[in-house]
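Practice problem: predict the structure.
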Amino acid sequence: MKRLFFGLITFALASPVLAEEVTPEALDAISGDVVVLGEIHDNPQHHLNQARAIRALKPRAVVFEQLTPGQAAKITPALLKDEKALGMTLGWEQAGWPDFAIYYPIFEALGDAKIYGAAQPRDVVRAAMTEPLPEIFGADAAAYGLDQPYPEDLQKTLEDEAQVDHCNALPPAMLPGMVAAQRFRDAAFARVAVQALKETGGPVAVITGAGHAKTDLAVPALIRKADPAAKVLALGQVEAESGKETGALPYDLWIVTPPTLREDPCAAFK
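Answer:
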């Protein structure tokens, strides 16, 4: 397999790692104390790959970006066996996530893993857009790097990326808040993963979007900062047309899949 080194941004909280594109078959040997399994939310193949990784890893805990702690607490072994009832109990459709049917293979693969919800209350995320992050996050903010602002050049880069991600439709005044909210959520997901590792001994799997799975600034980097002894592996999943080179990506491992069919998310702004 072709191996590539990925140079991390200067501010990055993780050291450069050996990065590698892999096929789904590599998931059968995946390992680590914490394995972050990134996804594009509406791509069914990505969830099949996550389920495959979980069956191989046999984690003692699984952390879901998509679930609140309250939702996670409702899940029982019996409920895991009933796709329709599980989706209804979780209020999945009302929460706005893609069709529960494409996520259900992950839940089928959980086995006896303890389920953690990492989703943050909307009012808290909104507060993170305008209030100092240490005040919103709490006493251990420094452990996750939230006590320090990003350098100006990195902040500008992230604001530009946020604008592109939102179809270039955001008022410029909103961009700092969008970056802060993403940073807060990354740290919150990382904190739940660290908690799960301490409480269960691991392995821990984290189900989250590909942006949160990046090794430069996102969840894996923050877990490594908060718990340097933990062996963290970050899997990214990206889309590309057949034969198109992706180049080096900010993941320990990544899988390239064909794009899923979807409407243009920016069509409404054109």
